[in-house]
Design goal:
This protein is α/β, with parallel strands linked by helices. The protein has 16 helices and 13 strands.
Length: 382
């Protein structure tokens, strides 16, 4: 048994944020039916790289789903879609706000077909407010959410290395769907779940927002450093960089003793607030007077031996050779009908009784049409 085994999800999404959301549901057993336009999800053409003509981007977020192609601008395919909705639990979409309403397929219309339906909408800025019609691009959300103002070294505006706005909004949508499903257990009624890339990133500002609320001062980009803790960042060793994370004064004391750090008990470094105030000189002295003496691997071993969090800065090739990743089954192999054996990421949440599973390769366009129509009792002529 899987946790979401009986859940039927109609997936109208494309690109990244929506497909990531529905993949989360599919990984735990939901029956996810990916409804694609006749030309397919845009990311089917995004590359290189391609594997036997199949986009690596598309393959990364569409496993455990079945595909049917429908043109929702036509009456015939709208009727097919409505029949599917009448027997489904959830619809997920990431069109610009108002698009489905224009087609007569918005939440108000679908809830009349199926009062228990839960519709999740993911957009750039949400369904209400003066910016609701702005397009939902990850880099735009990163810029407007404040994320780019606190990322990088401050010399140039810097975005995160992957699409955190898209992924974050997809995760919030999945969370909202779960909350709505639980509410439906008590009320028997579905509802509309509305979230956005902008809100996802603003909500993740947490302590940075808290610092701003408390001080009235805009946070600034600190590279890898933390605004409230020191040392807690990447530092330079003899042959490269590693990270160290002294989250409290006890860890600092251990670090002072084991390295050793001759200036570690100086007044300006005695407490975390002191070290934060004097972060610039502290890091400079650590790099020049202490860490320059040994290579990264030795410092990581030394610090870990006394419980001080430290780590090398790994490339992707390092990550996917990491024995912990292997032990946690975070790389899975699926056989795709065109691409052959492909690697995909594993499931990061492990449930003891109803675990998720990676079982189906990402679908080819319209691969499961006959199977899906039969599942909902639909004929092509209907």
């Amino acid at each position: 048994m899987q946790a979401l085994e009986d859940l039927v999800v109609i997936d109208l999404t494309r690109i990244l944020t929506g497909p990531f959301c529905t993949m989360m549901l599919a990984d735990f057993g939901a029956e996810v039916i990916k409804v694609e336009p006749p030309q397919g999800d845009d990311t089917r053409k995004w590359g290189p790289p391609f594997i036997q003509g199949e986009s690596a981007y598309f393959l990364s977020v569409n496993r455990n789903k079945r595909s049917i192609s429908l043109d929702l601008k036509t009456a015939k395919d709208q009727n097919i879609f409505k029949t599917m909705v009448s027997q489904a639990d959830v619809v997920v979409e990431n069109f610009r706000p108002g698009t489905l309403d224009k087609w007569g397929l918005g939440y108000n219309q679908l809830s009349r077909i199926n009062p228990k339906i839960i519709m999740a909408s993911i957009s750039g800025f949400g369904a209400t407010g003066p910016e609701r019609h702005l397009p939902g691009y990850d880099v735009v959300a990163q810029a407007m959410s404040g994320l780019m103002s606190v990322t990088g070294d401050g010399a140039h505006p810097t975005k995160a290395g992957f699409s955190v706005g898209d992924i974050g909004a997809g995760m919030w949508a999945a969370y909202g769907i779960m909350a709505a499903l639980w509410a439906r257990e008590r009320t028997g009624q579905g509802q509309w779940v509305d979230t956005s890339l902008f809100e996802a990133l603003v909500s993740w500002q947490t302590y940075q927002a808290g610092n701003y609320f408390a001080s009235g001062k805009d946070p600034v980009a600190l590279g890898s450093a933390h605004p409230n803790i020191a040392p807690y960042q990447a530092v330079k060793a003899q042959d490269g960089y590693f990270v160290v994370a002294c989250g409290n004064d006890g860890l600092w004391e251990k670090m002072v003793e084991v390295c050793p750090i001759p200036f570690g008990h100086d007044k300006e470094y005695s407490t975390n607030p002191d070290r934060v105030v004097h972060r610039e000189t502290l890091i400079k002295r650590l790099e020049e007077e202490v860490f320059a003496a040994k290579p990264v691997v030795q410092w990581v071993d030394i610090l870990r031996s006394v419980g001080v969090p430290a780590a090398p800065i790994q490339s992707f090739s390092d990550v996917f050779r990491d024995p912990q990743i292997q032990a946690r089954e975070m790389v899975q192999v699926l056989h795709h009908p065109i691409a052959g054996d492909i690697q995909v990421l594993g499931i990061p949440v492990k449930l003891s009784n109803t675990p998720g599973a990676v079982t189906m390769p990402p679908p080819t366009l319209d691969q499961h049409r006959e199977e899906i129509l039969a599942r909902f009792g639909i004929t092509e002529s209907s």
